[in-house]
Design goal:
The strands form three sheets. Strands 6, 8, 9, 11, 12, 13 and 15 form a seven-stranded antiparallel beta sheet that branches. The chain is mainly beta and 179 residues long. Strand 1 and strand 2 form a beta hairpin. The chain is elongated. Helices cover 0% and strands 55% of the residues.
Length: 179
């Protein structure tokens, strides 16, 4: 920047520069947008979520009122395991599910759903060798979210039969990493 005319300029939405008329410029302020982040967890308390007679290839939303708020900043929690982005951006989303299945030799998948739609990123998969033994599934994904997009975790069996799938623990975290 050069010149001796009074000028207020913006570079992005982060910094304002002011000329005092002498040809020199000074920074007036910086206004960085804080990144959004939030989590919800069953806080090592067994949640009471179960799906009896789970149909093959049907996704079931893991939702339970025992889910507690984690740290929330520009992200909201509905009180049952669903997080909502209050601003658009790229988010790193992580989840961990501890689950069991009452059938042996069953394949179980977990996945992230964005505003009710399945997402191909961040899926977990486990083969249940022994019935009623707890397994841990987790996933991580970078996903671009719009304002008011919701994020939840779902589970399904991909093996024929109708098992009862029980979720004992769920932790869901999302951190904005970009715009």
């Amino acid at each position: 920047l050069s010149g001796s005319t009074d000028f207020v300029g913006y570079t992005g939405d982060h910094m304002m520069l002011i000329s005092d008329g002498s040809g020199s410029w000074r920074e007036a302020f910086r206004s960085y947008r804080p990144m959004a982040y939030g989590s919800c967890t069953s806080a090592f308390t067994a949640i009471a979520w179960a799906q009896a007679a789970a149909a093959q290839n049907t996704w079931y939303e893991i939702t339970d009122t025992d889910m507690a708020d984690g740290i929330l900043s520009l992200v909201t929690h509905d009180g049952s395991g669903e997080l909502t982005a209050t601003r658009p951006g790229v988010y790193k989303i992580n989840y961990t599910v501890t689950m069991s299945c009452d059938f042996a030799s069953h394949d179980i998948q977990t996945g992230l759903f964005i505003s009710g739609a399945g997402n191909s990123s961040g899926g977990g998969w486990a083969e249940i060798i022994t019935a009623d033994v707890q397994q841990q599934l987790s996933g991580t994904a970078l996903i671009r979210l719009a304002t008011n997009d919701t994020v939840d975790v779902r589970i399904r069996t991909i093996t024929a039969g109708a098992p009862t799938i029980t979720v004992h623990f769920l932790d869901l975290t999302m951190n904005q990493v970009g715009w």
